[in-house]
Amino acid sequence: MLSLSVQLQIIGGTQRCETITIPLCKGIGYNMTRYPNSYGHEKQEEAGLEVHQFYPLVEVGCYKHLKFFLCAMYTPICQDNYEKMVMPCMEVCLEAKKRCSPLMQQYGFKWPITLSCEQLPKISEQQTTGNICAAPPDTPDPSILDPTDVSSVKTFLA
């Protein structure tokens, strides 16, 4: 679903950058987003209604970068001189799922299909594919981690 939506929007050529207005997503490290987003939301008000349903999960603190991940999904970064949406990196999604899914399951919820990680770009493939992705500065890059050094991290180039 994610890749199909993105393709349709790029073909339509109606994407625009705008200042983030969704309260949950203000002050997360970037302030411009691209719409329509990958879910087909034309307006931030539409996306805001969906992303705010995850607010209790953010408040519980199951993953320190959950708010960043959710906002990068619903308010993708709009970067000058880059015509594509900058989506969160797959590694950020997988970490959010790993840390928050068990808590959701305790209350009878499954990880939402809308937050699927499979279609997101990988940190390690940014240079080879040209698809950049967003990750907090302390997100580990599995391709450069030394298994004996847990302090190795990948810094996202903004």
Notes on the structure:
With 158 residues, this protein is mainly alpha-helical. Helix content is 35%, strand content 8%. It has helices at 2-12, 44-51, 55-60, 66-74, 90-106, 126-129, and strands at residues 16-19, 32-35, 87-88, 133-134. The strands form two sheets. It has a two-stranded antiparallel sheet with strand order 1-2. A two-stranded parallel sheet has the order 3-4. Residues 12-136 form the FZ domain. Keywords: Cell membrane, Developmental protein, Disulfide bond, Glycoprotein, Membrane, Receptor, Signal, Transmembrane, Transmembrane helix, Wnt signaling pathway.
Number of helices: 6
Distance N terminus to C terminus?
27 Å
How does the helix and strand content classify structurally?
mainly alpha
Largest sheet: 2 strands, antiparallel
Summed up, the domain count is 1
The radius of gyration is 15 Å
- The 3D shape can be described as globular
Helix share, percent: 25-40%
CATH superfamily: Frizzled cysteine-rich domain
Explain the layout of strands and helices:
Blueprint: H1 2-12, E1 16-19, E2 32-35, H2 44-51, H3 55-60, H4 66-74, E3 87-88, H5 90-106, H6 126-129, E4 133-134
Parallel strand pairs: 3-4
Antiparallel strand pairs: 1-2
